[in-house]
Amino acid sequence: MVRHCGQPTLVSMNSPSKILIRFPNWVGDVVMATPVLRAVRRQYPDAHLAVFIKKYARQLLDDCPHIDEVIEYDADGEHKSLKGYYRLLYQLREKDFDLGILLPNSFRAAWEMRFAGVKRRVGYARQGRGLLLTDPIPAPRDGRKLRIVNMVDYYLSICAHLGCAELSRTEELFTSMESDKRADAILKKNGVKENDVIVSLAPGAGYGPAKLYPLDRYAKVMNALADRYGARVLLITSPKETSLADEISGDLKSKPVRLDGENVDLGVVKSLIKRATLMVTNDTGPRHIAVAMNKPVVVVFGPTSTVYTDVNLGKTIIVREEVDCSPCQLKICPIDHRCMERLEHGRVLAAAEELMERHVVSKKS
Ligand code: SF4
Description:
Blueprint: E1 18-22, H1 27-32, H2 34-43, E2 48-54, E3 69-73, H3 82-95, E4 99-102, H4 107-115, E5 120-124, E6 135-137, E7 141-142, E8 145-146, H5 151-161, H6 177-189, E9 198-202, H7 215-229, E10 232-235, H8 242-249, H9 266-275, E11 278-282, H10 285-292, E12 297-301, E13 316-320, H11 338-341, H12 345-364
Parallel strand pairs: 1-2, 1-4, 2-3, 4-5, 5-6, 9-10, 9-11, 11-12, 12-13
Antiparallel strand pairs: 7-8
Helix pairs in contact: 2-5, 6-9, 7-8, 7-12
Iron/sulfur cluster is lined by residues 210, 302-303, 323, 325-326, 328, 330, 333-335, 337-339.
């Protein structure tokens, strides 16, 4: 169950009939916010529950049984212009929401809810937005300093403030039959058979290059897993990471399954990760999808703190090099990237083998 952040106050409220949840933007944060959907649905079983989310991330929530409506914010398309943006806000206003739950910390997210006429607006009082909220919740702090807490608990504490009784931390994602079929077709086209061991590798990081583990070392890990378990490599990369996929493909002994050139969205990525046996990854979004799919995961950490994501780690092994400068939370390393450069590939491989033996091989034998 959730450890509450800060000192949330239990408040009574009439049962809202229309609820809007503003979701965060990063893939990992979206997945870590999924327990909120379950908590809110159980607390308000008859309410209409809508989610407001950036367009590129919406497929993460596809087929979620707790949601009645998804409202897309297409920041790079139809809502990019001021006219398009305000059209969206007026559409929100027409929907007449009673309760708004703000998961991002931004001032703008609170202003949007206020502009859209959401009657009750609940979120953390950060970034000077307390006056825009009807229920400003104090952010967790140690004295004046913000306390770092895992994001699952951070989001669930807002639900605790609302009096939600079901505060399970389990992250959950769902896949559609259509996405599952498309994922199967991609694997089949690449010669992957039903019972093959598949290791999904996410070698990129939208956050910045400081999170990247050297590709040649990832290739050594993948080649060793191929030798030992006959593993096929599934490269999970975004359209912007084609050059990473090209580079590592050249170092792999056998042809990986690649997503560039395929018409995939995050719905298909979820289905592909669900089909995979194990994931090896930087501290990036696909890691959280794998956790929500209950997959064994090796996560290579460098500049970021493990505390933000220190939850649901039953099948996860974190590999990191202890260096004085970590965690720095920087996107670009200002020195020699020692947090990654000093990390031998053998440690990553050993973690992958441990998870294979613990969760996969023993089950098959
Ligand atoms: S400053 Fe240290 S922790 Fe940060 S990216 Fe560079 S080596 Fe890694």
